Amino acid sequence: MKAVTIPRYGSPDVLEIRDYPNPETGVDEIKIKVKAAGINFADILARKGLYPDAPSAPVVVGYEVAGEVLEAGRDAGDFKPGDRVTALTRFGGYANRVVVKHNQVFPTPDNLSDIEAAAIPVNYLTAWQLVEMSGLTRHDTLLIHNAGGGVGLAVIDLAVKKGARILGTASSAKHDRLRARGLDICIDYRKEDWVQKVLEHTGGKGADVIFDPLGGAYWKKNYQVLRKTGRLGMFGISEVTESALPGVLRFIPMLRKLPFYSPIKLMNDNKGVFGVNVGKLWREQDKVSMWAKEILKGAAEGWVNPHVDAAFTFEEAEEAHRYIENRRNFGKVVLLPDG
Predict the structure, then answer these.
(1) Is the pTM of this model over 0.90?
(2) Rounded CA gap, 147 and 145, in Å?
(3) At the topology level of CATH, where does 123-278 sit?
(4) DSSP reduced 3-state for 38
(5) Which CA distances in Å does 247 have to 8, 155, 252, 257, 299?
């Protein structure tokens, strides 16, 4: 099989295609011919040597794929060769063949292409968990940072379904498309003081719920504009990639900006803070599977609308990573093994 590999840590140009032996299928596993593989920011961090959960280089990363079943083990449920499926992979997704446990595989709705299906698992599971843990309701005002990213668009879908009022930060070039998807208020974080704008649009009270993938100084500012009884959900630290320091030293500037949320302060402020990392939920497979089935049901019903901004071939993996790092994407970016 062929797979896009991180042979050593570094810039996008380190990525290369390598040949590997075809994987064997276990009794409770399913072999999938990959038609599309999703790219996530965790993959970018892994390439830079900044993602602690990733195996050491050389490594094939990738958490999600869509394609068709090639082979199913005898204890792998009702799946059969030829079935269109969407799957979660614990690394190894940047390949034209993957083998995964049957409880990580789900039928792809007929109204989704393989490219669209590959955009669902990580982004929408992250969004679902954020909404679940925040208790988002139609009475809430939500602020989502990086609203034009893959998770941002997924959150918008779920928040619209909940009936919440939605504010989002994004560059001005994305505002029209964000409004079309359901964002009520767009804030240009490059040209506007987003803290002041949030206060203006909430009558000085702040947002009921805030979702943040950026980290660093944003965490302190988010807490400042969180309304009493508000909930702050953190699901990334993309700010760490902006440092010029090598390796894990990149975390030093960010660590200096970390806020301190003591239990007593949280009680006195009547605020809640929580974190989300879907990659740490592999021992909660029953819960993740339940969420995934609800999300794919939403896709079949039409209120979950994965948006793929760009698709790159395996040979263009370097360009794909640069595309995301430069924040050019509106929604998901995927890799296509067969072009």
Answers:
(1) yes
(2) 5
(3) Rossmann fold (3.40.50)
(4) strand
(5) 12, 31, 10, 18, 39
